[in-house]
Amino acid sequence: METYTIRPICAGIFGAAEKSNFSYQKDAGTKLAAPILMYLVQGRDTCMLVDTGCCGEAWAAQYHHPLTQTPEMEPVRALRDLGVEPEEVTVIVNTHLHWDHCFNNHRFPNARIYVQRREVEFALAPVPTQYTYYESPQLGMTPPWAKAMDRLEVVDGDFRLQEGIDLLFAPGHTPGFQCVRIQTEDGPYLIASDCVGLIENWEENLTHGLPTPSGIHVDLREYYDTIRRLLPLADAAHILPGHDARALEHSVYPPR
Ligand SMILES: [Zn+2]
Fold this sequence. Notes:
Layout: E1 5-18, E2 31-43, E3 46-50, H1 57-63, H2 75-81, E4 91-93, H3 99-102, E5 112-116, H4 117-124, H5 131-134, E6 152-155, E7 159-162, E8 165-169, E9 178-184, E10 187-193, H6 199-203, H7 220-235, E11 238-241
Parallel strand pairs: 3-4, 4-5, 5-6, 10-11
Antiparallel strand pairs: 1-2, 2-3, 7-8, 8-9, 9-10
Bound molecules: zinc ion.
């Protein structure tokens, strides 16, 4: 069976992020350093990104939350440091279209970009509390993903991308959210991104026995349907989160 390696990339750090944004109403007032994560997936003939990271410091300070981005964290530079030129990336999967997950789609000119139909529809007309997350047209902004709209591959629900790589429809954090299951030599990994913002939401910081959702979501009932569906998959897999520094404990997964 085809297997892959996964490299976490820190594209920036929210220095003082509100923890309850990641863990529904838990530890309100607690601040934490939250990396903005994207993942490089490589196989024999595969060079794929799961999410493309965030903007730079000035744009973030103006429109979002202040973040730190050293030169080494800038996504194209970070990939070059791993030996990958932007032109070599042939597939991008966006877990969702919040700005900190799709900001650099257009910088990978040869990539087909996989996103859920429901996510595209919602990104064009989100609920007002999420306008800024999408840099939506209602604010007079051009959503970052629209710069590479001609390369979108719009999918509906679960989708087998190729042997060993599956997109799993996982609405909740956003209406068209998707996780990515990757087969490795050490079994499956689940790139859960913002569905599991912090690992502790899934492991110890439970709510009545079930994992705790993100504080940012559009539909909690759908979110819990997703959690129940993912639980057996996640138990059998290693989870890679959206904004947890624990993802950076290893430079490559499976660890060598
Ligand atoms: Zn998000």
